[in-house]
Amino acid sequence: DEIPTVVGIFSAFGLVFSVSLFAWICCQRKSSKSNKTPPYKFVHVLKGVDIYPENLNSKKKFGADDKSEAKNKSAMPKNSLHLDLEKRDLNGNFPKTSPKIQSSPDLENLSPKRFAERKKDSVSPDSLKSITSLSSEDKQDKLGTLFFSLEYNFEKKAFVVNIKEARGLPAMDEQSMTSDPYIKMTILPEKKHKVKTRVLRKTLDPAFDETFTFYGIPYSQIQDLTLHFMILSFDRFSRDDVIGEVLIPLAGIELSERRLLMDREITKRNVRKSSGRGELLISLCYQSTTNTLTVVVLKARHLPKSDVSGLSDPYVKVNLYHAKKRISKKKTHVKKCTPNAVFNELFVFDIPCEGLDDISIEFLVLDSDRGSRNEVIGRLTLGSSAEGTGGEHWKEICEYPRRQIAKWHMLCDG
After folding, report:
1. In the chain, N or C terminus with fewer CB closer than 10 Å?
2. What does each C-alpha distance from 383 to 51, 233, 361 come to in angstroms?
3. Which residues contact 129 (CB under 8 A, 6 or more apart)?
């Protein structure tokens, strides 16, 4: 009788030990997961409020004051952004009557001169040139001023960009004499990080106050980067109007000690001259027996620089028309960062009529941009009514069916 009792006691102790060990392992895994860096590339903070507050290890806000950080680093500006979430309305906005909750309290009621005086410790010397050099005669030709701040968070290994506001933008809508501005920002030269602000309606002095936090950028690489801000005006019925751009090379900018508040004059978009829109190598074959048209997009070369980095992400969109009505469309894959792309992609189109008299085919070479609408680099149309090499190529495939004929074609403006 004693042996079964001893065995039962040892079994009970073993069961309790196993359950305790399993619970301890689960707790360790849960705690290790909570300490990992968030998997996203950047955090978007709208009006100073983090949209991922629970995933960050630290309870600090990048735009707020912190007493513990002030002991190790130089003190941040006294007028740092403080927000009271309880004072927001149902739409998430702040009432206009309260002076403490302006979208950009440091900039709203300050003249350029006072703005420069109050930020002597955090404003770079180069940024003051754009303000002090303004005169009444030059203001008519100016496209406005962009205000933003830069900082680097060493604990999170994150690069933080706050787009504060823009002032003095030109009116892009001639009827209402206003604009619907928003800003696209790209980190060059790799163009891995592309973000944009929200659209603010009918204003020439938009206050965005949006913060973008980019993780995974070592501080040693900051000097090699360049910030490109594109200021646009939203247009519901056509392509958005480009107001101007701001290009900020980060070489020589020190972010190790403090947040840097900067401003730059908005300049006209740099339209780069090129000998043409590039060339496209197309191979066509008309199968009269099956009444199909085989199209092979082979190569593109000498594409113009459609981005500040000097590189494009081209792809080709193919549209088939019957009697000026589009009946089919295809597109190739995107080729990253190259002016000379090799596609080698084949498409087969069914022709709805006998012969190719009423058929035409359009090739659009576009620059892929995830942050906004894709820009048309060049256009090519092949058909019986096409001029130049497009008409000659079409005539040859009609005269020699079942033969694959390839030709280079110059692209025209999109």
Report:
1. N
2. 52, 37, 6
3. none
Cα angle 385, 387, 393 (rounded to 5 degrees) comes to 85
Kindly compute the dihedral angle of the four CA atoms of residues 396, 401, 404, 410, in this order, to the nearest 10 degrees.
30
In eight-state DSSP terms, residue 95 is P
Q: For residue 351, what are the CA distances in angstroms to 210, 326, 359? A: 51, 12, 8
Start-to-end Cα distance in the chain? 95
> What's residue 405's pLDDT?
92
Q: Peptide bond before 189: cis, by omega within 30 degrees of 0?
A: yes
Helices of type H across 238-378:
none
Residues 284, 402: Cα–Cα separation, whole Å: 9
Widest Cα–Cα separation across the chain: 108
pLDDT given for residue 71 in this prediction = 45
Express each pLDDT in 280-317 by its tens digit. Answer: 999 999 998 899 999 999 999 888 876 555 678 899 99
Beta strand pairing call for 325-331 and 279-287: unpaired
CA 230/CA 177 separation, integer angstroms: 21
Residue 52, pLDDT above cutoff 80 = no
The tokens for 330 are 């295809």
For the cut 50, the answer to whether the pLDDT of residue 108 exceeds it is no
Identify the H or E element spanning 44: strand 42-46
Considering only residues 396 and 273, tell me which one the structure prediction assigns the higher pLDDT.
396
Structure tokens at 163: 């787009």
